[in-house]
Design goal:
Length: 496
């Protein structure tokens, strides 16, 4: 039998790398790797002996200086060959749009980068790997490669967080289960709503997210050390990594100081203008804002990235006796909140209320009539609290009868009226949660992320750092049992 070829995409988060280390002990597959890492990390991966790779590629090495002469014919044939819309990926790339405060890319620069990426990935796929191991994509180029893999017959094994604390998923697509059974085909389960709420609280992911956020907020010393390292080290990355174009020391430090001021001003505005209690004197529909920039919109729901317009669409579609409640995402604090003009535009809509980020989601869900979300776990949490949901893009809980998957924005008024009449069945929710837990793995992803951030990246404050091989070996030893278990799960997936 031919030896399986496995390719990993490593972005400096260590999970694919550690998985490869564990997997090579379990089978005789050939391992290949794409390293999408800053230049100071590169030296470790060039010299490391932890994983025996047949071949490796450093992503940024294949991206040439932006040029004006673009091979449009190649890009056109590429789109036709793979049925991939390159502009859809590129214009939703946070580096190429308004979220990049350091550098504005021209049309020619973007096309030049895309051309290099497409040619690199085609060259890599000549290896004919059987499996791809990767985190879920956060940037356009990783998503591009994952899509090319699927079309080329390479099975993606994408690792992502579940909605449960300390549990994760392996699937071909993030947030989409490989098991395609309908709700009627799942095993019966008879928990009532009180039991479901207790179950959800026990496994609630929010507590883990809040812990991670608190750790980031309180990490003063790592921030200082990261800043000193950045100031007193060479900053060559701005020339050879397009993700860091314009990241001069002066600009980075200026943005950091300005960001502190922005965060304070915006926080004060929210404290003075947002509601801190839920007013249910009028029936309301609940729309939780998504954190931005984030892949859950840019990649998972690329035509719904303008949340102000989405809120306007929802408010227009409500029955006359209802209003819309919007709540800020608590983790938006890591992005210095949003511009006050964003909040003011939403507050100007007559039938919209803005809830403070400190209001507990549970309190909102108990009092609302319907939840609408673009792409996220809020729709499942709604079902646990007996409330129907509308979702704009596919998510693993879309199979629930109480969840309405929107096909077009024009059907929103009909969808809202239909959903408001929908009753949630506890048995459906119960059997789905059992199904979801059975399709997830016991692994503390948030704990792992916190650990490697603290181990290597000054608490996640600086990524362009040199990596010490001895520290890597210590880190591997610390997580050896967890990754041995993970590797067994990957082997099961591969055998399927």
């Amino acid at each position: 039998m031919p030896t399986d070829k496995i390719i990993i995409w490593e972005s400096g988060n260590f999970l694919p790398f550690l998985l490869a280390n564990s997997l090579q002990k379990k089978n005789d597959s050939e391992f290949y790797a794409i390293f999408d890492v800053p230049d100071k990390q590169k030296l470790f991966y060039q010299k490391q002996k932890v994983v025996d790779f047949k071949n490796i590629w450093f992503f940024q090495d294949s991206i040439s200086e932006p040029r004006k002469k673009i091979d449009t014919k190649f890009l056109t044939s590429f789109e036709e060959k793979y049925n991939i819309n390159l502009w859809l990926l590129a214009l939703n790339e946070r580096l190429f749009n308004e979220y990049n405060e350091f550098y504005k890319f021209s049309r020619e620069e973007i096309l030049s980068i895309l051309e290099d990426e497409c040619k690199l990935f085609e060259k890599i796929l000549e290896v004919k790997p059987k499996f791809l191991i990767s985190y879920k994509s956060a940037f356009h180029h990783q998503e591009l490669f994952q899509q090319m893999c699927k079309i080329s017959g390479v099975k993606p094994l994408i690792f992502s967080a579940s909605v449960f604390a300390n549990r994760c998923m392996i699937s071909e697509e993030p947030n989409i289960l490989d098991d395609k059974r309908s709700i009627e085909e799942l095993e019966e389960s008879n928990r009532n709503f009180d039991e479901l709420e207790k179950y959800w609280k026990k496994l609630n992911l929010r507590k883990q997210q809040e812990h991670q956020l608190d750790s980031f907020r309180k990490s003063t010393t790592p921030k200082i050390n990261a800043g000193l390292n950045f100031i007193f080290s060479q900053n060559t990355i701005i020339k050879n990594n397009y993700g860091y174009y314009g990241h001069t020391k002066r600009k980075a430090l200026s943005n950091y100081v300005v960001g502190i001021t922005k965060k304070k001003i915006r926080s004060d505005y929210m404290d003075n203008n947002f509601l801190k209690t839920v007013d249910d004197s009028v029936p309301f529909v609940y729309f939780p804002l998504h954190q931005m920039p984030e892949r859950e919109l840019f990649i998972a729901s690329p035509f719904n990235t303008n949340q102000i317009e989405t809120i306007k669409h929802i408010s227009k579609s409500l029955p006359i006796g209802y209003r819309l409640c919007v709540k800020e995402h608590p983790t938006q604090v890591t992005r210095e909140w949003r511009d006050i003009s964003f909040y003011k535009e939403i507050l100007s809509i007559p039938n919209v209320q803005f809830l403070h980020y400190s209001v507990k989601s549970e309190d909102i869900l108990k009092k609302c009539s319907l939840v609408i979300t673009i792409h996220g776990a809020a729709g499942l949490e709604a079902a646990i609290h007996k409330k129907p949901a509308i979702i704009f893009s596919d998510f693993f809980y879309s199979i629930l009868p109480c969840v309405y998957k929107l096909q077009s924005i024009e059907e929103l008024p009909t969808a809202i009226r239909s959903s408001l009449q929908t009753k949630v069945n506890a048995s459906d929710v119960s059997r789905f949660l059992n199904f979801l837990e059975a399709n997830s793995i016991d692994f503390d992803l948030f704990g792992f992320e916190l650990d490697y951030h603290n181990y290597f990246y000054y608490g996640g404050n600086l990524l362009n750092v040199e990596i010490n091989e001895e520290k890597v070996k210590q880190f591997i030893k610390k997580h050896e049992s967890s990754f041995d278990m993970l590797a067994n799960e990957y082997v099961k997936k591969m055998e399927l």
